[in-house]
Amino acid sequence: MIMGSSSFSEEKISSWTEWKTYSFQGIQAKVSAPVLVSRGVGYLWFPVLVCLDKDNLVAVMQNRADACTDPDKTTALVARSRNGGLHWTEASPGYYGQCPLRQADGSYLLLPFYTARNPEGLIGYCQRMVVSKDDMEWIRTGVKVSGWARPDGDNFQNVGMAGFVFTGQTVDLRDGGYLATMYGYFKGTKRYSLVAVMSNDGRNWKVRSVIADENCKLQGQEGSCEAAVARLEDGRLMCVFRIASGVPYGQCWSSDEGRTWTEPIGMSGPHSVQPSLAVIKNGMVVLSGGRPGIYLWINPDGRGKDWQQIDVMAHHNAYQVKEPVKSTTSYTEVVALDETTLLMIYDRLHVPCESPETNSVWVVRITVSVS
């Protein structure tokens, strides 16, 4: 399937001209006025942001109900920006996935959310995204996850569906290959478990460790699930993950490339559904998420413990008084564009999503500096 370069029909702004400055102890964050990525009647939510480089980005937005379904029906609308998120092409049909990773040949993989069982492990279909100057080609390819020490469970209640799904982000490993996270149920359990998986090629994965299982001591009925992982300036990996909607995130660190993890602790401030992490050149860590609300949290010292908060939902509503965010999934993604600049994506919903009102996806651009 080829996606061309059609133009978005609504009036476009000419530059990132409107900013609000948020000052904290030792840092300043300038956040732009919100920019529209796409709008449409029906489902348009759970956005994923793929950063090809500082100017070229791809937004992948789920356009179906949030329900367990056949992997062939995990569709999406896809838009592209060639100027750092300021302007976007008209959204075209595509396939949904998470955990984007860049391969050696310059193409990108979006890993599948759902997986199925296979005698050799868990399998799924992912989308390989080949990007040229004018087009994006989506090529369906297979993914396999082996090395399971415990059998997965049936709690997703869909015939043929495995008990674990891919979630969040990937990081490059120092000795080559990639690390990603998966969450789900082990057989006979009632709380989620979160595992780290590694791959040399992005297609063949093996379980490297259990980050937190159903016995995680953190409070939350769901258990350890939706996650983000990033490499800190000191070389450690940090994982932030959901425990339940409306409660603080869990957090842990690894000093050996994801083979072992510290005992999870609860975070102070950052909370709720699937987090997203980015680390910029000066070592600052940025985390996005929320529910209720939409937030951006900044950790100035790069250790991931003390956070300064920006209310992105309130920021949006101050600029978009005619299109305020009253309802949202609170699912976001934040990516680093260069040494000081980030882009954050989020959705604005009407409930129910099947209503004749349009749902929409937006981005804000953020620059962070030491004050």
Question: What report would you give on this structure?
Answer:
With 371 residues, the protein is mainly beta. It has one helix at 312-319, and strands at 2-3, 19-24, 27-32, 35-41, 45-51, 57-62, 75-81, 92-95, 98-102, 108-111, 116-118, 121-131, 136-146, 164-172, 178-184, 193-199, 204-212, 227-231, 237-241, 248-254, 265-271, 276-279, 285-289, 295-299, 308-311, 333-336, 341-348, 358-370. The strands form five sheets. Strands 1, 9, 10, 11, 12, 13, 14, 15, 16 and 17 form a ten-stranded mixed beta sheet that branches. Strands 2, 3, 4, 26, 27 and 28 form a six-stranded antiparallel beta sheet that branches. The N and C termini lie far apart (47 Å). The model is unreliable at 1-9 (pLDDT under 50).
Architecture per CATH nomenclature, i.e. the level-2 architecture: 6 Propeller
Q: What is the number of helices?
A: 1
Q: How many beta-strand elements? A: 28
What distance lies between the first and last C-alpha atoms, to the nearest angstrom?
A: 47 Å
Give the overall shape, derived from the CA principal axes: globular
Output the CATH class name: Mainly Beta
Largest sheet: 10 strands, mixed
Describe the protein's topology.
Blueprint: E1 2-3, E2 19-24, E3 27-32, E4 35-41, E5 45-51, E6 57-62, E7 75-81, E8 92-95, E9 98-102, E10 108-111, E11 116-118, E12 121-131, E13 136-146, E14 164-172, E15 178-184, E16 193-199, E17 204-212, E18 227-231, E19 237-241, E20 248-254, E21 265-271, E22 276-279, E23 285-289, E24 295-299, E25 308-311, H1 312-319, E26 333-336, E27 341-348, E28 358-370
Parallel strand pairs: 13-17
Antiparallel strand pairs: 1-13, 2-3, 3-28, 4-28, 5-6, 6-7, 7-8, 9-10, 10-12, 11-12, 12-13, 14-15, 15-16, 16-17, 18-19, 19-20, 20-21, 22-23, 23-24, 24-25, 26-27, 27-28
